[in-house]
Design a protein that fits this description.
With 262 residues, the protein is mainly α. It has one domain. The chain is built from twelve helices and five strands. It has a three-stranded mixed sheet with strand order 3-5-4, with helices on both faces. Helix 5 packs across helix 9 and helix 5 crosses helix 10. It is globular, with a radius of gyration of 19 Å. It binds zinc ion.
Protein backbone atom coordinates (compact mmCIF):
# COMPACT_ATOMS: atom_id res chain seq x y z
CA UNK A 1 0.00 0.00 0.00
CA UNK A 2 2.75 2.37 1.00
CA UNK A 3 4.72 1.47 -2.09
CA UNK A 4 1.75 2.31 -4.29
CA UNK A 5 1.29 5.76 -2.79
CA UNK A 6 5.00 6.50 -3.16
CA UNK A 7 4.67 5.49 -6.79
CA UNK A 8 1.68 7.78 -7.29
CA UNK A 9 3.49 10.64 -5.58
CA UNK A 10 6.54 10.12 -7.77
CA UNK A 11 4.53 10.11 -10.96
CA UNK A 12 2.73 13.29 -9.96
CA UNK A 13 6.09 14.90 -9.19
CA UNK A 14 7.54 13.83 -12.54
CA UNK A 15 4.57 15.03 -14.54
CA UNK A 16 4.79 18.38 -12.76
CA UNK A 17 8.41 19.02 -13.51
CA UNK A 18 10.11 21.38 -15.92
CA UNK A 19 13.70 21.56 -17.12
CA UNK A 20 15.83 24.65 -16.58
CA UNK A 21 17.41 25.86 -19.85
CA UNK A 22 21.24 25.73 -20.02
CA UNK A 23 21.76 23.76 -16.79
CA UNK A 24 19.20 21.02 -17.51
CA UNK A 25 18.16 20.85 -13.84
CA UNK A 26 14.70 19.44 -13.18
CA UNK A 27 12.46 21.70 -11.11
CA UNK A 28 8.98 21.48 -9.64
CA UNK A 29 6.37 23.27 -11.73
CA UNK A 30 2.80 23.18 -10.43
CA UNK A 31 1.67 26.34 -12.20
CA UNK A 32 2.04 27.36 -15.81
CA UNK A 33 3.59 30.52 -17.20
CA UNK A 34 0.26 31.29 -18.85
CA UNK A 35 -1.13 31.70 -15.32
CA UNK A 36 1.86 33.59 -13.89
CA UNK A 37 2.80 35.97 -16.69
CA UNK A 38 -0.49 37.97 -16.70
CA UNK A 39 -0.25 38.41 -12.90
CA UNK A 40 3.34 39.62 -13.24
CA UNK A 41 2.37 42.04 -16.03
CA UNK A 42 -0.35 43.63 -13.87
CA UNK A 43 2.03 43.95 -10.94
CA UNK A 44 4.75 45.41 -13.18
CA UNK A 45 2.41 48.03 -14.66
CA UNK A 46 1.45 49.29 -11.22
CA UNK A 47 5.12 49.52 -10.13
CA UNK A 48 6.13 51.37 -13.29
CA UNK A 49 3.14 53.73 -12.95
CA UNK A 50 4.16 54.61 -9.37
CA UNK A 51 7.78 54.86 -10.48
CA UNK A 52 8.80 57.50 -10.77
CA UNK A 53 10.69 56.65 -13.94
CA UNK A 54 14.13 58.19 -14.23
CA UNK A 55 14.40 61.44 -16.19
CA UNK A 56 18.04 60.64 -16.96
CA UNK A 57 17.67 59.89 -20.66
CA UNK A 58 21.28 58.66 -21.06
CA UNK A 59 20.99 56.06 -18.29
CA UNK A 60 17.50 55.01 -19.38
CA UNK A 61 18.73 54.53 -22.95
CA UNK A 62 21.66 52.42 -21.68
CA UNK A 63 19.35 50.12 -19.70
CA UNK A 64 17.01 49.74 -22.68
CA UNK A 65 19.82 49.11 -25.17
CA UNK A 66 21.46 46.43 -23.03
CA UNK A 67 18.02 44.97 -22.29
CA UNK A 68 17.20 44.62 -25.97
CA UNK A 69 20.62 43.07 -26.65
CA UNK A 70 20.09 40.46 -23.92
CA UNK A 71 16.51 39.87 -25.12
CA UNK A 72 17.80 39.13 -28.64
CA UNK A 73 20.43 36.75 -27.22
CA UNK A 74 17.80 34.87 -25.19
CA UNK A 75 15.49 34.53 -28.19
CA UNK A 76 18.42 33.21 -30.25
CA UNK A 77 19.57 30.80 -27.54
CA UNK A 78 16.09 29.37 -27.01
CA UNK A 79 15.54 28.98 -30.77
CA UNK A 80 18.88 27.17 -31.17
CA UNK A 81 17.88 24.79 -28.40
CA UNK A 82 14.34 24.10 -29.59
CA UNK A 83 12.92 25.86 -26.54
CA UNK A 84 11.26 28.91 -28.10
CA UNK A 85 7.86 27.85 -26.77
CA UNK A 86 9.15 28.63 -23.27
CA UNK A 87 9.12 32.30 -24.28
CA UNK A 88 5.43 32.23 -25.13
CA UNK A 89 3.57 35.15 -23.55
CA UNK A 90 6.79 37.13 -23.00
CA UNK A 91 6.32 40.84 -23.55
CA UNK A 92 9.72 42.34 -22.78
CA UNK A 93 10.00 45.74 -21.11
CA UNK A 94 12.95 47.60 -19.61
CA UNK A 95 12.52 50.55 -17.27
CA UNK A 96 14.78 52.59 -15.02
CA UNK A 97 13.04 53.70 -11.82
CA UNK A 98 14.27 56.85 -10.10
CA UNK A 99 14.85 55.53 -6.58
CA UNK A 100 18.09 55.39 -4.67
CA UNK A 101 17.86 51.62 -4.26
CA UNK A 102 20.78 49.47 -5.43
CA UNK A 103 18.66 46.74 -7.00
CA UNK A 104 17.23 45.32 -10.21
CA UNK A 105 14.90 42.45 -11.10
CA UNK A 106 13.13 40.70 -13.95
CA UNK A 107 9.61 39.37 -13.51
CA UNK A 108 8.25 36.33 -15.36
CA UNK A 109 7.45 37.36 -18.92
CA UNK A 110 10.50 39.61 -19.34
CA UNK A 111 9.46 42.65 -17.29
CA UNK A 112 12.68 44.29 -16.10
CA UNK A 113 13.23 47.11 -13.63
CA UNK A 114 16.52 48.76 -12.74
CA UNK A 115 16.69 51.31 -9.91
CA UNK A 116 18.93 54.36 -10.30
CA UNK A 117 20.78 53.36 -7.11
CA UNK A 118 22.44 50.41 -8.87
CA UNK A 119 23.77 52.46 -11.79
CA UNK A 120 27.00 53.65 -10.07
CA UNK A 121 27.85 50.02 -9.23
CA UNK A 122 27.22 49.00 -12.84
CA UNK A 123 29.44 51.91 -14.02
CA UNK A 124 28.80 51.33 -17.75
CA UNK A 125 26.95 49.16 -20.27
CA UNK A 126 29.21 46.22 -19.48
CA UNK A 127 28.18 46.31 -15.82
CA UNK A 128 24.52 46.76 -16.77
CA UNK A 129 24.86 43.66 -18.97
CA UNK A 130 26.15 41.62 -15.99
CA UNK A 131 23.08 42.56 -13.93
CA UNK A 132 20.68 42.29 -16.90
CA UNK A 133 21.99 38.84 -17.87
CA UNK A 134 21.69 37.63 -14.29
CA UNK A 135 18.16 38.99 -13.75
CA UNK A 136 16.85 37.73 -17.08
CA UNK A 137 18.43 34.34 -16.27
CA UNK A 138 16.30 34.12 -13.10
CA UNK A 139 13.19 34.65 -15.27
CA UNK A 140 14.24 32.23 -18.02
CA UNK A 141 15.08 29.59 -15.39
CA UNK A 142 11.58 30.16 -13.95
CA UNK A 143 12.95 30.58 -10.44
CA UNK A 144 9.85 32.50 -9.32
CA UNK A 145 7.56 29.76 -10.62
CA UNK A 146 9.64 27.12 -8.87
CA UNK A 147 9.44 28.99 -5.57
CA UNK A 148 5.70 29.42 -6.04
CA UNK A 149 5.33 25.70 -6.77
CA UNK A 150 7.31 24.77 -3.67
CA UNK A 151 5.13 27.18 -1.67
CA UNK A 152 1.96 25.55 -2.97
CA UNK A 153 3.31 22.09 -2.23
CA UNK A 154 4.23 23.06 1.32
CA UNK A 155 0.87 24.70 1.92
CA UNK A 156 -1.49 22.15 0.40
CA UNK A 157 0.28 18.94 -0.53
CA UNK A 158 0.32 17.69 -4.09
CA UNK A 159 -3.09 16.09 -4.35
CA UNK A 160 -5.01 19.20 -3.35
CA UNK A 161 -2.94 21.81 -5.15
CA UNK A 162 -4.84 21.81 -8.42
CA UNK A 163 -8.20 21.65 -6.68
CA UNK A 164 -7.28 24.48 -4.34
CA UNK A 165 -6.06 26.64 -7.17
CA UNK A 166 -9.05 26.05 -9.39
CA UNK A 167 -11.43 26.96 -6.57
CA UNK A 168 -9.69 29.99 -5.25
CA UNK A 169 -8.16 32.43 -7.70
CA UNK A 170 -7.48 34.98 -4.97
CA UNK A 171 -5.46 32.47 -3.01
CA UNK A 172 -3.45 31.64 -6.11
CA UNK A 173 -2.72 35.30 -6.62
CA UNK A 174 -1.75 35.76 -2.99
CA UNK A 175 0.72 32.87 -3.14
CA UNK A 176 2.08 34.25 -6.38
CA UNK A 177 2.70 37.67 -4.86
CA UNK A 178 4.36 36.11 -1.84
CA UNK A 179 6.61 33.88 -3.91
CA UNK A 180 7.76 36.81 -5.98
CA UNK A 181 8.06 39.10 -2.97
CA UNK A 182 6.01 41.53 -4.98
CA UNK A 183 3.94 42.90 -2.14
CA UNK A 184 6.81 45.33 -1.76
CA UNK A 185 8.39 47.87 -4.06
CA UNK A 186 11.73 46.11 -3.89
CA UNK A 187 10.47 43.44 -6.19
CA UNK A 188 11.90 40.12 -5.18
CA UNK A 189 12.48 37.92 -2.19
CA UNK A 190 15.87 36.54 -1.37
CA UNK A 191 16.93 33.97 -3.95
CA UNK A 192 18.45 30.71 -2.75
CA UNK A 193 22.12 29.97 -3.27
CA UNK A 194 21.18 27.36 -5.88
CA UNK A 195 19.14 29.92 -7.83
CA UNK A 196 21.91 32.49 -7.53
CA UNK A 197 24.58 30.12 -8.88
CA UNK A 198 22.29 29.06 -11.70
CA UNK A 199 21.47 32.67 -12.66
CA UNK A 200 25.19 33.54 -12.63
CA UNK A 201 26.03 30.70 -14.98
CA UNK A 202 23.13 31.29 -17.39
CA UNK A 203 23.55 35.08 -17.24
CA UNK A 204 27.19 34.82 -18.37
CA UNK A 205 26.12 32.95 -21.50
CA UNK A 206 23.35 35.44 -22.33
CA UNK A 207 25.66 38.45 -21.90
CA UNK A 208 28.38 36.79 -23.98
CA UNK A 209 25.93 36.07 -26.81
CA UNK A 210 24.75 39.68 -26.59
CA UNK A 211 28.32 40.87 -27.20
CA UNK A 212 29.39 41.74 -23.65
CA UNK A 213 32.58 40.30 -22.17
CA UNK A 214 31.69 37.79 -19.41
CA UNK A 215 34.91 38.73 -17.57
CA UNK A 216 33.11 41.94 -16.60
CA UNK A 217 31.05 39.87 -14.17
CA UNK A 218 34.13 39.37 -11.99
CA UNK A 219 34.71 43.14 -11.86
CA UNK A 220 31.06 43.79 -11.06
CA UNK A 221 30.94 41.29 -8.20
CA UNK A 222 34.18 42.66 -6.78
CA UNK A 223 32.62 46.14 -6.73
CA UNK A 224 29.40 44.76 -5.22
CA UNK A 225 31.25 42.80 -2.50
CA UNK A 226 33.32 45.86 -1.60
CA UNK A 227 30.04 47.62 -0.78
CA UNK A 228 28.96 44.85 1.62
CA UNK A 229 29.58 45.43 5.31
CA UNK A 230 27.18 47.29 7.58
CA UNK A 231 24.74 48.67 5.05
CA UNK A 232 24.95 46.30 2.06
CA UNK A 233 23.14 47.24 -1.16
CA UNK A 234 19.57 45.87 -1.52
CA UNK A 235 20.87 43.79 -4.41
CA UNK A 236 22.88 41.72 -1.94
CA UNK A 237 19.84 41.07 0.25
CA UNK A 238 17.76 39.75 -2.66
CA UNK A 239 20.77 38.16 -4.39
CA UNK A 240 22.84 36.88 -1.46
CA UNK A 241 26.50 36.37 -2.25
CA UNK A 242 28.82 33.80 -0.74
CA UNK A 243 32.57 33.31 -0.34
CA UNK A 244 33.13 31.26 -3.47
CA UNK A 245 30.88 33.26 -5.79
CA UNK A 246 33.61 35.12 -7.67
CA UNK A 247 35.67 31.91 -8.02
CA UNK A 248 32.58 30.08 -9.30
CA UNK A 249 32.00 32.84 -11.86
CA UNK A 250 35.65 32.67 -12.97
CA UNK A 251 35.27 28.91 -13.41
CA UNK A 252 32.15 29.39 -15.57
CA UNK A 253 33.73 32.00 -17.87
CA UNK A 254 35.49 29.58 -20.29
CA UNK A 255 32.12 27.96 -21.11
CA UNK A 256 30.50 31.39 -21.60
CA UNK A 257 33.39 32.52 -23.84
CA UNK A 258 32.35 29.85 -26.35
CA UNK A 259 29.23 32.00 -26.91
CA UNK A 260 31.07 35.35 -26.92
CA UNK A 261 30.43 37.49 -29.98
CA UNK A 262 32.41 40.70 -29.48
ZN1 LIG B 1 20.11 36.68 -8.39
Amino acid sequence: MKRISVFILLSIMLSNCATVPVTGRRQLSLVSNSEIIPMAATQYDSIVKTGPLSKNTTQTAMVRKVGKDIQAAVIEYMAQNGASEQLEGFNWEFNLIDQDIANAWCMPGGKVAFYTGIMPICVDEQGIAVVMGHEVAHAIANHGRERMSNGLLAQFGLSTVSAAMGENANLTKQIFLQSMGMGTQLGMLKFSRQHESEADKIGLIFMAMAGYDPNEAVEFWQRMSALGGQAPPEFLSTHPSHDTRIDDIKAAIPEAMKFYKP
